[in-house]
Specification:
about 80 residues, mainly beta, 3-stranded antiparallel sheet, two-stranded antiparallel sheet, 1 helix, about 5% helix
Length: about 80
């Protein structure tokens, strides 16, 4: 985890994961981060434009441990600085 005050440049897709003891958030969005379903949702009305996730619920990099002890990491970008 980056020390307090340090910033990470993330350019990519955010995602949301289920709340489970097997899921781990590696890098979360800031308090002002949000993600929408698609660009089409912006023009489809107020309800469709509600964010799918916001703040710390926006996951940029996450990991999970499967029940057979396999480990998987997800990152929505190959450009992480």
């Amino acid at each position: 985890m980056a020390p307090a005050g340090h910033k990470v440049l993330f350019q990519g897709l955010a995602h949301s994961i289920a709340n489970s003891p097997l899921n781990f958030n590696v890098l979360a969005g800031s308090g002002t981060a949000y993600t929408l379903g698609s660009k089409a949702a912006l023009g489809a009305g107020d309800k469709a434009a509600e964010p799918l996730a916001a703040g710390a619920d926006v996951h940029l990099v996450s990991a999970l441990v499967a029940r057979n002890a396999a480990r998987v990491s997800f990152a929505g970008s190959d450009s992480l600085c």
